[in-house]
Structure prediction request, 176 residues.
Amino acid sequence: MADLIDRNLPRVSRRAVLRGAGVLVPGVVLATAGGRAASAAGASRLDGAVRGAFSAPVHVWATSAGRAGRAAHGVVFTLVANSRPLAGRRVRFSISEFHRVDLSVWFEVAPGRRSAPRLGHLDLDTDDAGRISLDRWLRSGAVPTSATGAHPVLRAQLVGTEEILAITTLDVRSGQ
Prediction:
């Protein structure tokens, strides 16, 4: 009986088995490590008690001919846990529909440089009061957001998590 089974099955070398296992093992290890990382990130959030808020639900700036790239003042984000400020936490800010509004609103990491890149996201750390002011990095341009057909929002999330903590609308309007 064993002789019949052996003749009907294709032969697989030990090398092929080991090669297959070598391909699968890293995926299993990464999946396991990723699960632990997600669990650790969830635990570090103090069981959902982490909250974030922007200084206003909508931030509006006026365009100005010849002054593209001026500072977009007034956007402040605050991060708390159990009503206490969370200092030293890295927060990612991202502008939705950035590919459409990059002439209206963007982040600039090297203000004043002639060829400073326009970015759609930026990671910053909270101060001792759990706050981040975006005045140094957020810029408004000469193109109104309404001209782009987009309705951009600024999102805030803790780096390493996917949960959005707060959203505020960004609006650049024609003006002086």
About this structure: Helices lie at 2-8, 14-44, 98-101, 145-148.
